[in-house]
Q: What sequence folds into this?
């Protein structure tokens, strides 16, 4: 899927995730806690962790992952150059499909970082 409006995609996905939170609150609360714990500052800073998550989203071909982790990477101060290198590692690990999703990840990052 090629998302053209990343802001609308996040809004739509947030709505859908809200339905899940209502229907399976224990699971979503647990997932939120995992995410919060995984991304908090440690030996690796939060920006680096979000770039790792973005690379995994690219190799897993997960549009939602691209949107949320591109937005978070921008929030934590990632540069376009850092995102490009992250995409390079994802392409190395995931081949051609990662090249396509890497382009999508860059488009999402550009929207959320104001580079668009």
A:
């Amino acid at each position: 899927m090629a998302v053209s409006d990343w802001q609308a995609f996040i809004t739509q996905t947030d709505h859908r995730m809200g339905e899940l939170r209502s229907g399976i609150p224990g699971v979503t609360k647990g997932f939120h806690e995992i995410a919060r714990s995984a991304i908090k500052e440690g030996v690796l800073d939060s920006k680096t962790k979000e770039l790792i998550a973005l690379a995994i989203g690219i190799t897993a071909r997960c549009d939602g992952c691209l949107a949320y982790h591109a937005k978070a990477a921008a929030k934590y101060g990632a540069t376009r150059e850092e995102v490009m290198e992250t995409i390079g590692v994802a392409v190395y690990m995931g081949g051609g499909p990662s090249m396509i999703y890497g382009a999508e990840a860059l488009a999402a990052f550009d929207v959320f970082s104001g580079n668009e």
User: Anything to note?
Assistant: The mean pLDDT is 94. Residues 19 and 25 are 10 Å apart (CA to CA).
